[in-house]
Amino acid sequence: MRLALLGMPVAHSRSPQIHRAALAACGLPGDYRARAVDGAGFAAACAELRDGRLDGANVTMPHKRAAHDACAVLDPDARRAGAVNTLAMRGGLLAGWCTDVAAVRAALDQMPVGEVMILGAGGAAAACVVAAAGWPLLVAARRRQAGQDLVERLGIPATVVPWGQPAPGASVVNATPLGAGGESLPDGVVAGAAGLVDLAYGRVPTPAVVAGARAGIPTVDGLTILVAQAAAAFEIWTGREAPRAVMEAAARSGESLKEA
Which of the following is catalytic: 19, 63, 64, 68? Predict the structure, then answer.
């Protein structure tokens, strides 16, 4: 199988090691490569999918919205989120899924019942808002108008709050890259939270994940989310049950256990 990750940047991604391990565990020949692509490069990769030179692709920032727009067939979560992170051909048509949604839903099931505050306004945040539909929902973006635009586009009831404003007792979902390079979330956001789902990941646990663990609140890290969405994508491409334990081990291989 010829699989790829499409985005910019992608050098930090653990998706290649996760999917290569899964292919090997299932005895499937093939490879998964990370490609740093701009808009033109993304369009070229879509052409490769349509003519069979690629069998499947994951999509990361900044192309999740473009991936949605390129697809002739969309699964319900992708249609609602307006974002796609998994591409494959179905019946001769380019099809898209947003496997982030189910991954975040599963993480939210581990959080206390109550408000959820989503941090961010991009494609990952859109998936998180869809996943949290039905919960009392807050959205905070560094550009408040971007958060307002996201809520209005999705049509999911949510209150847009200022960036950096704590929401005591809420479960916080970080859908920004903050933390991947060791950055902290705004002061007080994690300290008063009832739970944390942090989509960011890096070489070491993010400051938010460390703070959540120290506070003793339910905490789901970015590698857990990455493996969950990757397993769903693998099953879409191969029709095989994903070897989740193998994928989890691959994701965490080389991870430092030092606190950020």
Answer: 64
